[in-house]
Design goal:
Blueprint (H helix, E strand, L loop, with lengths): L7 H11 L2 H14 L4 E5 L7 H6 L3 E6 L2 H10 L4 E4 L11 E6 L10 H14 E12 L1 H9 L3 E8 L2 E12 L5 E12 L2 E13 L3 H10 L2 E10 L4 E9 L3
Parallel strand pairs: 1-2, 1-4, 2-3, 4-5
Antiparallel strand pairs: 5-11, 6-7, 7-8, 8-9, 10-11
Bound molecules: S-adenosylmethionine (SAM).
S-adenosylmethionine (SAM) binds next to strand 2.
Length: 246
């Protein structure tokens, strides 16, 4: 997948335009405030678009992302903030944190049950007892029917005077889990024509609420809330769970 490496600047241009990160911040801030958590690790911090708001609002923030290119863009935008390149399946923080959020459906890239188990185990180890984890995932029950219909989606964005376009189509893949192959074509307008920048393909995982609940139970997290939420392209649930003693 090139979106978070070779195409990281295109990601930044497009997502900054069509995602309302202030709304995203307000959503997670409500959850964290309710549980009185001001110390925060964001996994899948991307290009730092949420970090801006957490920093502005007095959170003790650290972002973690697998992609060096994404982290480099975050550091360029917020040179004084803490961002680390790391894998959610294997990371270790210096000190345990009060809360972990995994944003923008980053959990979709945990393609095997072993990946999911490793990520929950790492998050568990890096959280204080009573600490909160919150993450969103694509709901298989609502999204797979859309894949079966063969829906095609176009996203457009204008960033710094340049017009970008992404055409996406999805193909169901049941080799490992309830995954889909996301084919996309990125282009930008030059003169009066769109010129192709790059094609991209990635495998993305959907989950059912039940399977997520079981994985959390196995990993000693107690579910506090399950929030139904529509995002820019995907029907999702957001989980809020608490780390309990083993
Ligand atoms: C859809 S983007 C979301 C970025 C950001 N949260 C946002 O909303 O703009 C998913 C991010 O997850 C990161 N990612 C994928 N697998 C990861 C892993 N195993 N550990 C940490 N980050 C990962 C990617 O590099 C990418 O930046």
């Amino acid at each position: 997948m090139k979106l978070y490496s070779k195409l990281s600047e295109v990601y930044e241009a497009m997502y900054t335009t069509f995602i309302n990160y202030e709304e995203e911040y307000k959503f997670y801030n409500k959850i964290l405030s309710k549980h009185k958590k001001l110390n925060l690790l964001e996994i899948g911090s991307g290009t730092g678009n949420l970090a801006i708001y957490f920093e502005e609002n007095g959170y003790e923030y650290c972002g973690l992302d697998l992609s060096k290119e994404m982290v480099d863009i975050s550091k360029r935008k917020l040179p004084l903030s803490k961002f680390i390149v790391g894998d959610m399946r294997t990371f270790t923080t210096k000190n345990k944190v009060d809360s972990v959020i995994v944003t923008g459906r980053t959990i979709s890239y945990l393609l095997s049950n072993n990946d999911l188990m490793s990520a929950f185990a790492s998050i568990y180890e890096n959280l204080k007892i009573g600490g909160i984890i919150s993450f969103d995932f694509i709901d298989a029950n609502r999204f797979i029917p859309r894949i079966l219909k063969g829906e095609k989606i176009t996203h457009e964005a204008i960033y710094k005077g340049v017009q970008y376009k992404r055409k996406s189509k999805w193909e169901l893949s049941l080799k490992a889990g309830m995954d889909f192959i996301w084919h996309s074509e990125y282009s930008k307008k030059v003169g009066d024509k769109f010129l192709k920048i790059e094609d991209d393909t990635s495998i993305v995982r959907t989950f059912t609420k039940d399977e997520i609940e079981i994985f959390l139970l196995i990993n000693n997290f107690e579910i506090k809330e399950v929030i139904n939420r529509e995002t820019y392209a995907f029907p999702t649930y957001v989980i809020v769970a608490e780390k309990i003693e083993k």
